[in-house]
Write a structure and sequence with these properties.
The protein has 6 helices and 7 strands. It is α/β, with parallel strands linked by helices and 200 residues long. A hairpin with a 4-residue loop joins strand 2 and strand 3.
């Protein structure tokens, strides 16, 4: 059953692979492998901090853990791993278990699906009364490093469009075709299921 509010984690899944999104969100099909289980365990540790707020002397920052919000305006819902308030500014921090991705020049970069998920968190915050959120961070557990993501007008527009496109697919289908010769399929927990079926 499709809920009225689209989880922002499903925005990530949609951009990464629309077929995976369809399995998980529309059909409710979940599959676990070592990679998925590792990520689940690490997020469970974060969820133990749910609702806890702490003040830190360094820069007088305030941390709120596992903040759940919904937005009537955008029709989305989700959890913010860490909401940080510092120097009068508020920004979301999303945790990822892997290491920081690097480009061919060995410079950090952020995958689009992760950018859109994080931007979705900014939209949630703003629709719940927080002042304009200019940026957020992805914290890569494997590297113990943060990478900043600026919420540009272009990224905001693409995030809102992604919400609408994902909702349309969820409502009207059909199931998207598998990715072709894509390395992302190799570690996918849904691979055995996905390639037993074909688009209808």
């Amino acid at each position: 059953m499709i809920e009225a509010y689209l989880p922002i984690s499903m925005l990530n899944a949609f951009v990464y692979c629309p077929r995976r999104f369809y399995y998980e969100y529309v059909e409710g099909t979940m599959a676990y492998n070592e990679d998925v289980e590792e990520g689940r365990i690490k997020h469970e540790r974060l969820d133990e901090e749910e609702g806890r707020t702490s003040g830190r002397k360094e820069g007088h920052s305030i941390h709120s853990h596992s903040v759940f919000l919904s937005s009537d305006k955008y029709g989305i819902i989700g959890k913010i791993d860490l909401l940080e308030e510092k120097d009068g500014k508020t920004y979301p921090v999303e945790y990822k278990k892997r290491k920081v991705p690097k480009n061919s020049n060995d410079k950090p970069f952020v995958w689009l699906n992760d950018q859109i998920q994080l931007c979705g968190q900014a939209l949630l915050l703003e629709d719940n009364g927080y002042p304009s959120i200019t940026h957020g961070f992805l914290y890569y557990i494997g590297s113990k490093k943060r990478v900043r993501v600026d919420f540009t007008n272009e990224l905001r527009k693409e995030t809102i469009e992604t919400v609408e496109t994902a909702k349309t697919l969820a409502k009207d289908g059909p199931i998207p075709s598998p990715l072709e010769d894509d390395p992302r399929c190799v570690p996918c927990s849904l691979l055995p299921i996905s390639f037993r079926r074909f688009p209808y």
